Amino acid sequence: MLNDVVRNAAFRAAIERQIAEGYNEVLDIGTGTGLLSMYALQCEGIRKAAACDGSEIMVQIARDVFGANGLSDRICLFQSYSQDLKIGERFSLIVTETLDSGAFGEGILETLIHAKRHLLLPEGKIIPAKVTLYASGYQSRALTASNILINEAFIEDFSLPSNCLLSKEGTKCYDAEDIGRIQANDDFEFVTDTVISMVVDFNDLDCLVRFQDGTEEGEVELTCLDDGLLLDGFVVWFDLQLDEQQAISTDPTTSTCWNQAIFRLNQRLPVAKDQRLKLTMSCKDGALSIAHNLNSVENQISVHEHVLEFLNDNEYYSSLTEATEALDDMEKVLDLSLFPYAGLKLLKEGKARMLFCLDQAEDLIEFVANQNDIPMGSIMLVNSLQEIFLLNDYTLDLIILQPVDVFGQINSEHFCLYQSLLAKLKPIGTVVPSSLELHGSVIESDWIVKCSRVENPELEQFQIDKYLASLETENHLDLGPFSYRNLSPTVKLADIQFDGKLHETALELALSEPTEATRVHAILYHYQIGFTPDRPLLGTDRAQSFAKRSAFIIPKSTFHGTSGDDEPSSDTAQIEQLYTTVLQNHGVIKCDIASVSQ
User: Fold this and answer.
1) Same CATH fold, 435-597 and 131-301?
2) DSSP strand E in 180-243: where?
3) Domain ranges of the chain
4) What residue stretches are annotated with the Protein arginine N-methyltransferase domain (predicted)?
5) Which of 67, 105, 561, 581 is 20 to 30 A from 538 via CA?
6) What number does CATH give the domain 313-432?
7) Could you read off the pLDDT of 299-346 as tens digits, one per residue?
8) 57 alpha carbon, distance to own chain's centre
9) Between the CA of residue 373 and those of 246, 277, 322, 369, 553, what are the distances in Å?
10) DSSP 224
11) Could you say which architecture CATH assigns to the domain 5-97?
């Protein structure tokens, strides 16, 4: 957000304009780092300034920023939510940027109702002045894979009814997603036209109250664009009118720090061209919601969204079940997968007599067992891995591990306990997967830099970057689609050992061509999983992988001294290769990076 120069410039211009017009007593609600207050304090003619934030950490950062800029004596800073302020004075201008992807999720309606009644002068103004919400229907497999079951192979193998599973998060509320990034991966399509669904005037107290108490709603009718499309849900974004001249938008076609709000259906609904869809949008009690009659009324089992993402990874499902299908006549199997479908398949086919698995999806396990005449007496649900250690040694014929989690990290618990689990395996027993490799490439990506650290000359001038340095990201997890450019080939960085011990692997990563240091941003990495020694590896860099890619962020300090001294390298310093050291310890992966200049 701090790196969004369009957003920042628009707020700055609106604040300067209103102060110049005489609205020169300013209260900044939810000040964060103090950026909007800094804009106000730099204006000629400002008479009074105050700021508040409910976060102790952010108030301390704002205090440090004001002090570093010599402004501590010109602003009153409160660690308090605005509704709890007891300051006995009013202001002519209130500025706030307490909006989430669905506009109202950070409580802006309640905040502004209280501010209009207790903190703003009768003739005062609020920035932003108005918000206009838009809605459209969409189709996207990526967004659907975490919400409903769409893996036909799994459904067929276990004779499940269609549309039988739903994420626990389901249709209760909205998620925040960057639609622009998903579109860039060709996995998002608008199914309907786009219409205005709601307009809220932040300077009109009656309007705020009507939307907050639910007496005013937005009635919407969407028109489907073509035949043969599937409606997976609705996407909502907004235009924010700051004042009479300045506006910003969270439209997915713009480069904005905001994501869009996603409302999912509990089914994939076929639609026809010119079909009309009626919706009612509400923000009662500050919670944006969409009411409609498009959801399935069938009974559905609720499971965690990560379990659904795992089940919907078709290639992983095929690789794991094929890796175990040749095994037979097994007494006991331990399946530690997010969902133990391989173990259940072995039970169903009579190749195993007892399955031990975690109880994290107990309802679904019981449902699948009942659908396939698998006796629940042959399934032992355990609450934790510690319960497995009660088994006698040399008991298990097969251990199925979950080597990588949905965020793109190795499963540290499984790795740390691997040696203890191995003691429970028969001498001729099998462990699946049999190997794991870490692969990666050097990339350039403005997006990943903006999400990881402050890269904004204006904020550096205010010294905000200095006080946010401790919050910089070193390892960016759970990466969906995003824009980047490879600066090197993808290579194996390390073999990941199945234990909790310390391992260190050094490697020289040669760039494809000499590259300016300022463009070398991260090492994008994923895993290659070997289910059996004789099968091809399966990567987690696939578009439909349940496990996302991650990135080691290369700190700016990496390139200090590349010119032969301890000073930062110039913007034009050329990097030819990186020295990397991958450390694995207690199931945690870390990458230390050093550079070599031309």
Assistant:
1) yes
2) 189-190, 195-201, 218-223, 229-241
3) 5-97, 131-301, 313-432, 435-597
4) 220-287
5) 581
6) 3.40.50.150
7) 889 999 999 999 999 999 999 999 999 999 999 999 999 999 999 999
8) 22
9) 64, 41, 22, 6, 50
10) B
11) 3-Layer(aba) Sandwich (3.40)
The average pLDDT across 492-520 equals 92
Q: Which CATH class is domain 435-597?
A: mainly beta
Phi-psi region of 555 (alpha: psi -120 to 50; beta: other; left: phi over 0): beta
Angle at 253 between CA 251 and CA 258, to 5 degrees: 50
Q: What is the rounded distance in angstroms from the CA atom of residue 142 to the CA atom of residue 84?
A: 42
Residue showing tokens 């001038």: 461
Which pair of structure tokens corresponds to residue 378? 């042959």
Query: What's at 353, amino acid-wise?
Result: R
What is this structure's pTM? 0.91
How far is 95 from 248, CA to CA, in rounded Å? Answer: 15
Measured at the CA of 248, the angle between CA 247 and CA 254, to 5 degrees, comes to: 145
Answer left, alpha or beta for residue 381, where phi above 0 means left and psi between -120 and 50 means alpha: beta
Q: How many C-beta atoms lie closer than 10 Å to residue 390's C-beta?
A: 8
Instruction: Look up residue 428 and give its amino acid.
Output: I
- Which distant-in-sequence residues (6+ apart) come within 8 Å of 7 by Cβ? 1, 248, 256, 257
Domain spanning 131-301, CATH class = mainly beta
**Helix (H/G/I), strand (E/B), else coil: 201:** strand
* Beta-sheet strands, E only, within 76-225: 76-79, 91-96, 120-127, 130-139, 165-167, 175-177, 189-190, 195-201, 218-223
pLDDT, one tens digit per residue, over 249-308 is 999 988 888 999 999 999 999 999 999 999 999 999 999 999 999 998 888 899 999 999
Does 560 have pLDDT greater than 80? no
**DSSP letter string, 534-588:** TS--EETTSTT-SSPEEEEE--GGGGBTTTSSSSBPPTT-EEEEEEEEEEEETTE
